[in-house]
Amino acid sequence: MTSLTHPSPGLPPVRQEPNGLLHDLVRDQSRRTPHAPAVTDSSTTLTYRQLQDRADATADWLAGAGCGPGTLVGVALNRSADALVAVLGVLNAGAAYVPLDPGYPAERLRAVLDDARPRLVLAADREKTARLLGADVPLAELGSIPAAPVPGRHTRTAGAGVSPQSPAYVIHTSGSTGRPKGVVVPHRAIRSRVVWETAAFPSGPGDSVLHRTSLGFDISLQEILPPLAAGARVVVADDDGQRDPAELVRLLARERVTTLALVPSLLRALLDEDEGLRSCPHLREVFCGGERLDRLLHDRFLRHATARLHNMYGPTEYAIDATCWTCRPLPPGQEVPIGFPLDRTQLYVLDDALRPVPDGRPGQLAVAGDQLALGYHRDEELTARCFPADPFRPGSRMYLTGDVVRRRPDGALEFLGRQDDQVKIRGHRIELGDVEAQLLALPGVRAAAAGTVDDPGGDGSVLVGYVVPGPDGADPRGLRRELAERAPAQLVPAHLVVLDALPLGPTGKTDRSALPAPELGGEDEAAGPDAPDDETTRVVVDVFREVLRRPSVGPDDDFFDLGGSSLQAARLVNRLRKRLGEDLPLALLFEASTPAGIAAALREPRHA
Question: Among 35, 49, 146, 340, which residue carries the largest CB count within 10 Å?
Fold first, then answer.
């Protein structure tokens, strides 16, 4: 078989309108249900008419500022109803939006800006954003733009000249050189993905979809656009709500969320809660993607949840997803497949010469079809290499994913691994070369390498950094702190190992297979940390050891300096709640991140 083109069994084929625009799906819905709630955040609810009016007013203003087809507009807003207004406003104006997550380090955001060179950046606070991005970035406060368009003006001024091939957004991913690369996705591609979901998984007024993902991650589009195209409500989780699994479960139940998209590691954390997802009876569809869904988690979900679970796979270069597998009981020993192609998608399993391999044999997965990106922003060489001509469909292109798969006898695809040095950490696609470039930029580092190890707690892969210091030596904790100020959290290794030299292969390149596994006791812990002097601190130290899987933790050791991730933070707080019998907020760990500090905070009157 040359390609796999038939959609997932049980899912209907989708009738597409090839000349439609992405934002017209939302505009059409706002005409059908103008008074229905469209988006709810912690401070407001906007109806479809209010959302559309504000988006049109933003589009008018952007058009007047010279932002239209062929231009990029940065969106530097946290998750909120305002952020949805900004995204729709940019699309309505005919421009493409570039997400700039305010939670990212300034250095990383400036690298994105240097690549994207947007005409304008929309922000919530002009002064604060100028300090983050730089005073020379052209900024506009969304709040200063009128909330309603001038009657009749929108159709005359905004969006003229945009086509299905026009870019809708540019999302930046990790690049092997240490510089982020921008994936340019046109209206046609993301509209096709939205239309597929609204047809395959119908929803409408009365349904709610959780939005908890940063705009810089393309799962956010799945959380926003299909519900707005179908008349459902988008429920925006605030920072605490999306970080804390216990609060997230409460939010799902309180808002009667019916559809949820998340990475497997977060799904595992939700199931770890006392009630798991049993307290969310309205939850109907759970889309899991971004990293491998392992068999244990798959089976656990099927035992304890009533919603349907869908394993999704797709690169950013193919508008969110290329395959879908609706989970069901599997025979012993069989892994969870990534499934079958979405409608109007072609999948090829190829050898090194881009020839089809027989069913059952491993090969590189290539994807083609309506959801294909245009390529990489301002990088024709990389675009030509990764998006070659499709030899099976003359006049078309395909994307070489670098993922190794094989086709099962039933036609479903199984994911086997990668051809290159790309890894997935908590759903984020990361080039190990990017991590190494970040480490080499740190003062006092002479050589660097990066790799991964399996998380003993079942949370997928853990990123490990290796550094060879200069003559003055290196402090791993200090290096991690400095790296955290420069790079996104997903690029900061959970463990940093100091080596005298990097292992080299026959060609003189770093031999990543020979890099030593980190000693989970800590690369720079002093021997025998002082014993805690009170019972509460002893309990907190014990929980630190359990969650971080370190044999030695002292009262003054910082959770995040020890490599703790956001998911581990949620697990730690959950265990402390059970051990101490107190309803601890997750925010406490960000205020006091050592065992002694947490114990002291618990002794304050508000916790007494």
Answer: 340
